[in-house]
Amino acid sequence: MTPLVHRLARALYALLLRLGLPLYLWRLWRRGAREPWYRRAWGERLGLYRGRVEPGALWLHAVSLGETRAAMPLIEALREQRPGLRLLLTHGTATGRNAGRALLRDGDLQAWLPYDMPGAARRFLRHFRPSVGVLMETELWPSLMREAERFDVPMVLANARLSERSARRGRRLAALMHPAARRLTLVLAQTPDDGGRLAAAGAPQVLVGGNLKYDMTPAPRLLAQGLQWRQALERPVVLAAVTREGEEQPLLDLWREVPLPRPLLVIVPRHPQRFDEVAALVQAAGLGLARRSAWAETPPADAAAADVWLGDSLGEMPLYYAAADVALLGGSFAPLGGQNLIEAAACGCPLVMGPHTFNFAHAAELSIAAGAALRVADLAAGVDAALKLAADPQRREWVERAFAFAASHRGAAQWMAQQVLGLTGEPLTPALRLTSAEPKAAG
User: Fold this and answer.
1) How many CB atoms within 10 Å of residue 380?
2) How far apart are alpha carbons 306 and 340 in whole angstroms?
3) Cβ atoms of residues 230 and 264 within 8 Å
4) How many CB atoms lie within 10 A of CB 240?
């Protein structure tokens, strides 16, 4: 494509964002009624920041809760390799920003990343003047990338992934996305397949070094608490982990058909704004409900007798995995790509997944091969498999295989930290290197 086509595409993109700005702000206000963080620091969404800051911080953008949690081991490794590191942490969602607060130390900064309009991106970079920018997983914004190049800020896409489905979409928007990818200084991809697709999309330098999610360590306190819950219950526990809209109703319909006495079903929705909605679905299905938010450390006696527990809390996924005998992977039974399945393995929870795991394709196949998970054709088969696995006398072997699978793939955090710090003077370590002209090297 010619430079003129790229300029026209960028101009149209910026115009559409400006026209949609009132709608974006209205949506923020509405979401803020349930999640107050969305009504704070509105000006930052437009690149308007207060006060003076010292330039040179390492900037890391983790848009939401999942990316923020994945960034934790990388941030720890960065601090270990560069004591005194000053961090600028940005987000796009309230859950991400709330989780990110726990990662801050004295001298660190936290802000909203502005909407991807040229002026807002320019004001953001002029205000903070970061030494390097790290975007987590899939966050590639055309205006931001262009302004970062103008401000001479090296940009890294860390823990990067790109499914074939997303790559096809990207090719339809090649006039916008290829220039953005070419402006990346470095891509640190999860798998060779991800690396090959990103190289083909235009990224000039791609290194393949694994998935940060394997380096996430579940909190021992939460694991111990979950095991205590499980030991106090007198029936099996099936967890529906990180469910998405449209998944709970079919599950509840199937669960009502399970013969009595049923196992306990625990549902943990992905988005906290849906907690009340899912609670209403459970009650409408005629099933007894207990909500995690209703008790502190120990479930009361009436909760133990409920048909369904609703995991309406944040930051407690290890607790739910530890309390469960088996988990159904949210997002995998409808064409949504699946959720993070590595955390279940790290907590020793066997997993049943549906056919749709394209967001974690490599990890899904590795977990199945390791005997830590199994795949089924649909949700009905998933419920049947989960019930059988929860009652399997050999279940402990599944648990051990899950732990072993998660432990065998650790190490990406230290490696990625070296690559990021190498852009500020540290030497790069040898790794698989791909260029946009060599996508086949990923195979």
Assistant:
1) 15
2) 27
3) no
4) 29
Residues in CB range of 253: below 8 A, 6 or more apart: 285
Identify the bridge partners of residue 289 per DSSP, sorted by sequence position.
Answer: 308
Is-catalytic flag, 277? no
User: 379: which residues sit within 8 A by CB, 6+ positions away?
Assistant: 247, 250, 251, 254, 328, 333, 354
Q: Assess contact for 338 and 356: CB atoms under 8 A.
A: yes
DSSP 127-144: HH--SEEEEETT---HHH
**Which region among 16-20, 283-287, 341-345 has the lowest average model confidence (pLDDT)?**
16-20
Q: Return all residues near 86 (Cβ < 8 A) that are at least 6 apart.
A: 54, 56, 57, 58, 107, 108, 109
Tokens of 8: 């026209």
- What does the alpha-carbon distance between residue 339 and residue 315 come to, in Å, rounded to a whole number? 15
Element (H, E) at 205: none
Chain position carrying tokens 């669960």: 255
User: What is the enclosing helix (H) or strand (E) of 402?
Assistant: helix 395-407
Q: Which of 163, 174, 85 is nearest to 130 (CA)?
A: 85
Extended strands (E) in 1-131: 58-61, 87-91, 109-112
Q: Which two tokens stand for residue 175?
A: 């006039």
CB 125 within 8 A of CB 55: no
Q: pLDDT tens digits, residue range 257-302? A: 999 999 999 999 998 889 999 999 999 999 999 999 999 888 998 8
Closest among 123, 183, 138 to 358, alpha carbons compared: 138
Q: Decide: helix, strand or coil at residue 157.
A: strand
Per annotation, catalytic residue among 35, 44, 54, 67: 67
Whether the CB-CB separation of 416 and 159 falls below 8 Å is answered with yes
Confidence class for position 343, pLDDT limits 50, 70, 90 = very high
At 35, list the tokens: 């999640």
Could you identify the residue written with the tokens 């030991």? Answer: 231
Residue whose structure tokens are 């103008």? 150
List pLDDT tens digits, range 101-124.
999 999 999 999 999 999 999 999
